[in-house]
Amino acid sequence: MANRFVITSFETPSAFRLAPGCTIVGKWGGRRYVVERLLGEGAGGAVYAVRSAQGLAALKFGRDALSLQSEINAVHTLIDRGAVSPDSLLDADDWRSPDGVFSFYVAAYREGEDIVRFVRRRGADWFGTVTVGLLGRLEAIHRAGWAYGDLKPAHVLVGPYGKVELVDFGGATPFGQAVREFTERYDRGFWRAGDRTADPGYDLFAFAVMCLEMDGAVRLQNADRHPRMLLKRLDASAALRPVAGLLREMLSGPHRSTSELAADWRRAVRVGRSFSPRMAGRVPNGPIVAGFALSAAMFAAAAALYVLK
Hints:
Elements (H helix, E strand, L loop, with lengths): L4 E3 L8 E3 L4 E3 L6 E11 L2 E8 L2 E8 L2 H16 L10 E7 L2 E9 L4 E2 H8 L4 H17 L2 E2 L8 E3 L5 E3 L6 E2 L25 H15 L12 H9 L8 H9 L5 H14 L38
Antiparallel strand pairs: 1-2, 3-4, 4-5, 5-6, 6-8, 7-8, 9-11, 10-13, 11-12
Helix pairs in contact: 2-4, 3-4, 3-7, 4-6, 5-6
Protein name: Protein kinase domain-containing protein
Organism: Candidatus Reconcilbacillus cellulovorans
GO molecular function: ATP binding; protein kinase activity
């Protein structure tokens, strides 16, 4: 079958399209990937589910080669320091297409649902499991001296039994540097709660905002861009009362270490297991597994793992 593709430019997210069945061959490594479907796209690139000799994977094209290389370097470093799984980066190469040469990298493919949707759909009994899992992921990255950066629901996928996957490392930044990529709604600077310097508190602030969103009773208004609005919503949430003190610390600072906060969080969610009837749902029987992977991100209909942006 001949390759089918439409690449007009990389100026807009909709400009890059590869049809199912298109074959991508690495210019340097020679590995072959057959496109199955588009997973998502954003300002940083486009992500596809692809089939290779090793099975299903997620392949990201970068709109800017230097930015994509920075992301690849970040993932390399985090793998070397034991902060993320080795399957977060399976291959990196260029593809010589009829319209030019495009850089890409490949990661393991996983399925999941964004963390906020998962909790709202599955119920409050899952709140502790998935938030403890997410803090564990952040703790590992922080121990390596990095901030995750662009933390938001679409970048945190949860599998059927509670396995948490951090995805899209485009925002990963060494401590002390300006955060490379962020999303305003979860950005400490946007809420006037601090700067955009990479540190543990930057990620923990975003974590707290997502916890507010998990309570269906909470409605965040971007118009009132000040920490007091977030704290007001927190005070009004009966669902989050067992962890309200910790969330207040994350929203206000100064912060203790992520390890200390995670330990206190685990104790708090054990004490306050029932969080909110608004999150209530049937919880299936089965083991709870916490793990790490990579998925398709940058699109709120999170269904597959990857790294995007």
